[in-house]
Write a structure and sequence with these properties.
CATH topology: Spore Coat Polysaccharide Biosynthesis Protein SpsA, Chain A
Strand content: 15-25%
Number of domains: 1
Largest sheet: 7 strands, mixed
CATH class: Alpha Beta
Distance between the termini: 57 Å
Strand order of the largest sheet: 3-2-1-4-9-6-10
Number of strands: 12
Order of helices and strands: EHEHEHEEHEEEHEEEHHHEHH
Length: about 325
């Protein structure tokens, strides 16, 4: 059995790559600082909705280092590993994870450091992703008020089969790849596109990996019709530019590319309705109503959302 190591002796740094996430960014930051994160390295990719100003506020508080990256060529892997390298080399990270703004890395023990501190021989924790979804309000969904479901038993199928089925079943019901939380005792470990694994060249000497039993990622991938439309455009343009300049694998971010194509075809409202067609899957146990504990975590988002001046709801028929 490993001898307990005090989690407080380890420095945990989170990275964030964001663009126009003002409804979740402050809640994300406050949540993670309350649950074991010591410092944040963030890259703002040209936000115009107030996200940058929130990040600047926390930078002035001394808990965040902010990088401005306005490029519309979406080099996600490069930018994330640049932040991770800084976290290790400049800010003395003992542990690192790479979060998106719409994620809460939740630890049942209360501290995101605890599991790795206890498991002294483990280098990398593989962390499962749980999708949290709103009830269908016909395009008038409000975040976080209408977050109602957790995908409890996601459908697991090979990517090719998922690609063939998302034309009639919500993409959010499928199992997402795990992400990683890892130690830097062997130096900085670069991650693959999407932050789902450590790059193969980092495996010598062999890293010790383990599925996390304490940490899970609560993911809020769709929050309103307007948010989905804007995110589709932002991601689609950035990925299209990336393909144009550097090329990419057809599987890389295929779902975001698909949504962008549907947007250009005027069919995004159809896809949005399909993504929130969820009720029939309750009986099958694929998803379940959000429990009280999960609902309490939504409080981290509530204050920021109340402060945002809400635009008039976007009609499905006009999308």
């Amino acid at each position: 059995m490993s001898i307990f190591t005090d989690p407080n002796k380890h420095r945990l740094i989170m990275t964030l790559l964001v663009r126009n996430e003002v409804d979740v960014i402050e809640g994300n930051i406050r949540f993670h600082l309350d649950h074991g994160v010591d410092f944040i390295v963030a890259t703002d990719n040209g936000s115009t909705d107030g996200t940058k100003e929130v990040l600047e506020k926390y930078a002035r508080m001394g808990v965040l280092h902010l990088i401005h990256e306005p490029s519309r060529v979406f080099q996600q892997q490069l930018w994330v590993n640049t932040m991770g390298g800084l976290a290790y080399q400049k800010f003395s990270a003992d542990m690192i994870f790479h979060s998106d703004a719409d994620e809460l890395w939740y630890s049942a023990s209360g501290s995101l450091k605890r599991e790795l501190a206890l498991q002294q021989q483990v280098d990398v924790l593989s962390v499962p992703v749980r999708n949290m979804l709103p009830a269908n309000k016909n395009g008038f969904e409000q975040f976080p008020l209408d977050v109602t479901y957790e995908v409890n038993k996601p459908i697991w199928k090979p990517v090719k089969k998922v690609m063939n089925e998302v034309g009639w079943r919500s993409f959010f019901l499928y199992r997402y790849p795990n992400k990683v939380l890892y130690k830097t005792r062997r130096g900085y470990l670069s991650v693959v596109q999407g932050n789902h694994s450590i790059l193969p060249e980092n495996t010598q000497p062999k890293l010790i990996r383990q599925l996390s039993s304490d940490v899970e990622i609560l993911h809020f991938p769709i929050r309103s019709l307007e948010q989905f439309r804007q995110k589709t455009i932002n991601n689609g343009e950035g990925l299209e530019n990336m393909d144009l300049h550097f090329g990419s694998c057809s599987i890389h971010a295929w779902h975001a590319k698909r949504w962008y194509l549907l947007y250009k075809q005027g069919r995004l409202a159809e896809e949005y309705s399909r993504l929130l067609d969820l009720e029939a899957h309750l009986a099958a146990g694929i998803l379940k109503p959000l429990c009280t504990q999960r609902k309490q975590l939504l409080g981290y988002f509530e204050r920021a959302c109340l402060e945002i001046q809400r635009p008039a709801p976007l009609s499905l028929v006009n999308l």
